[in-house]
Design brief:
Alpha-Beta Plaits; 2 strands; alpha+beta; single chain
Amino acid sequence: MALWITDECINCDVCEPECPNQAISMGVEIYEIDPQRCTECVGHFDEPQCVQVCPVSCIPVNPSCVETPAQLLAKFRVLQGEAAAEASPPA
């Protein structure tokens, strides 16, 4: 399951820096979560950090992106592999 930010978002800017997967970015009007990068913090934390810091509780589970904990962990591993590849110097 990926999370999503509802239109109740007040653009307070606290969620974006908390995301370990860089899944949150500013959209046209409010912040958005990229479901391809959101692991609900699986692999990093026990709880989604954006949900923990959101002052208006506008970050529910996205019903159109339902994933099991195993799928979220697999996505985390892929994202970590991409991050490692980007950090490696060219040969």
